[in-house]
Design a protein that fits this description.
Layout (H helix, E strand, L loop, with lengths): L1 H42 L3 H15 L2 H14 L4 H22 L7 H14 L3 H32 L1 H11 L2 H15 L2 H13 L5 H14 L2 H6 L3 H21 L3 H8 L6 H20 L3 H11 L23 H24 L1 H7 L2 H26 L8 H38 L5 H27 L2 H32 L7 H18 L3 H6 L3 H11 L1
GO molecular function, one term: sodium:phosphate symporter activity
Pfam families: Na_Pi_cotrans (PF02690), PhoU (PF01895)
Membrane topology: Multi-pass membrane protein
Length: about 550
């Protein structure tokens, strides 16, 4: 029974260690995930910068999985090249070893202080940034406390002859030990926690140094599996597959040399625990130095092994809504934004041929535009459901605002598609059935309004992608331009009808087309509201607007 209780204690302390790691990772991502994502997309064009970024960010996040998820998202979307992405992962692997190095020292005395400070900050402030700092402090304290408790819990295990015999026999079979540790790491989703557990086993004398090194190899190998399992497309699998191949190479090279490696590392620290920690760092550092040079060749090999599949014929099928990315809000929002841009491309295609549809009665083009609306609606529904699956608690203030921006963008783009496919194409059909023709002046006015709408669409995409306040102001200012164009075109058309006195020239159909083009522009102008509101400029605009309209 004592052995059973000891195992329960160990399991509980490992769970506490995992929860502490989760708190640190989620706290950093909630508070600074968007900034980290922007830095990754902006500054990682070179391999040394990518390597250094991976080391630093993973040391902060205490999770190479979180770093890998961001890098995978950028590599899959094309914002980050595969070779720099692999360099990021090499750095992330080194970064995890720095965490283990710090945690391996006996600094448990600061655990209560960190927990107390974190609790006080979290409860006494309404600022989300400070709340996340408190969350990180609590997580670090829980990790140190869990490690301290683990060391104490290992004493009964050391005295339990059966368990000791099992672990020692496992350590004597390095391949089996590596596979068991890899499976445990995959189940825990944290190589840091498993390596620290191995350190505790080595400190208690349950496993010898070579056996512990075999377990460390397994922890490194298993740490690559979660990202690979969560990638759902061949392009997304390239980066985690490359990381797996790099670490598998290291495991194959090191397995026959474990006793020799333990002997070489002894001068840096003779205790088994210190040998384990130093080996973990040396293993990943050596792999980073070996593969940082041929990383381009590795990237080309991965492209050949995992070619990009043909895009689905159905445009309504999402291409970037990776369910595995929902654990990282900023990555999931980047995916949703990319899918939203596909909707914008579809709407741009629907709007591009409007003048030809009305000028030449192109029924084939009109039918294609009408059918596109169904795909647009399905894609919009998929994006809304994807955003709804994001845990609200995992969103910081900036991510929450971005989620609302994407949702507003999707809704406005859907409305534009509905107006184009339903109203405008219905008017095109009526015009063709009645045999009505627009005058050359009418077509010219229609083309002018259409050109202004397309220019506003491009401005709206700039606002959506960059949050550009100046572009948002320009977009709002164009409402007056479209209002004047619509009024002038309507007046000219009505005047021409009166002069002809025969009711020809399209009549009410043409006027409704002009009205719907202005409605489309109103939905585009709505994209400027959130950026202007954040900048404190929306209220002034709303106060002035009635005077001009």
């Amino acid at each position: 029974m004592k052995g059973t209780f000891a195992l329960l204690d160990i399991a509980g302390y490992v769970a506490l260690l995992l929860w502490g790691t989760h708190m640190v990772t989620s706290g950093v991502l909630r508070g600074y995930g968007s900034a980290l994502r922007r830095w990754m997309g902006r500054y990682l064009g070179h391999r040394p910068a990518a390597l250094g970024f991976g080391v630093c960010v993973t040391a902060i996040l205490q999770s190479s999985t979180a770093t890998g998820l961001m890098a995978t998202s950028f590599a899959a979307s094309g914002f980050l090249g595969l070779a720099p992405g692999l360099a990021v992962m090499l750095g992330a692997n080194v970064g995890t070893t720095l965490i283990v190095q710090v945690m391996s020292f006996d600094i448990a005395v600061v655990a209560p202080v960190l927990i107390l400070i974190g609790f006080t900050i979290h409860r006494r402030t309404d600022d989300v940034s400070y709340e996340n700092i408190g969350r990180v402090s609590i997580g670090l304290g829980l990790m140190l406390l869990a490690l301290h408790l683990l060391v104490g819990a290992m004493a009964p295990v050391e005295n339990a002859q059966v368990l000791r015999a099992i672990l020692q026999s496992l350590a004597s079979e390095p391949v089996l030990a590596m596979l068991v540790a890899a499976l445990l790491t995959w189940a825990c989703h944290s190589s840091v926690a498993v390596v620290l557990l191995i350190v505790s086993l080595a400190t208690a004398g349950v496993v010898d140094a070579p056996g512990a090194l075999a377990l460390v190899l397994g922890a490194n190998l298993g740490g690559t599996i979660p990202a690979l399992m969560e990638a759902h497309t061949p392009v997304a699998r390239r980066l985690p597959m490359g990381n797996l191949m790099v670490r598998a190479f290291g495991c194959i090279v090191c397995l026959p040399m474990l006793p020799l490696l333990a002997h070489w590392l002894a001068p840096l620290g003779a205790s088994p625990a210190r040998i384990v920690v130093n080996f973990h760092t040396a293993f990943n550092l050596a792999l980073a130095l070996i593969f940082i040079g041929p990383v381009d060749s590795l990237a080309r090999l991965l492209v050949r092994l995992l070619p990009e599949p043909p895009k689905p014929n159905d445009p309504g099928v999402p291409q970037y809504l990776d369910e595995g990315a929902l654990e990282s809000a900023n990555v999931a929002l980047a995916n949703a934004a990319r899918e939203s841009m596909r909707m914008a491309d579809m709407v741009e295609g629907m709007l591009t041929g409007l003048v030809e549809v009305f000028g030449k009665d192109d029924r084939v083009r009109a039918t294609a535009i009408s059918r596109m609306d169904t795909s647009l609606d399905r894609l919009g529904m998929a994006i809304r459901e994807y955003l709804a699956d994001l845990n609200g608690e995992a969103l910081n203030e900036e991510d929450g605002e971005r989620s609302q921006e994407i949702l507003a963008f999707v809704i406005n783009i859907e409305h534009i598609g509905d107006i184009t496919a339903n109203n405008l194409m219905e008017f095109a059909a009526k015009k063709a059935e009645r045999g009505q023709d627009f005058s050359a002046e009418d077509i010219q006015d229609l083309a002018l309004m259409h050109t202004q709408v397309m220019e506003s669409l491009r401005l709206g995409l700039t606002v959506f992608l960059r949050g550009d306040v100046r572009a948002a102001q320009q977009l709002m200012a164009r409402k007056e331009v479209l209002w004047k164009l619509e009024n002038e075109a309507s007046e000219r058309h009505i005047r021409a009808l009166r002069e002809r006195r025969d009711g020809g020239g399209g009549g009410d159909v043409y006027l409704r087309i002009l009205r719907d083009l202005k409605r489309i522009h109103s939905h585009l102008a709505a994209l400027a509201y959130l950026p202007l509101e954040r900048a404190g400029l929306l209220q002034d605009r709303l106060v002035r607007e009635p005077a001009t309209t």
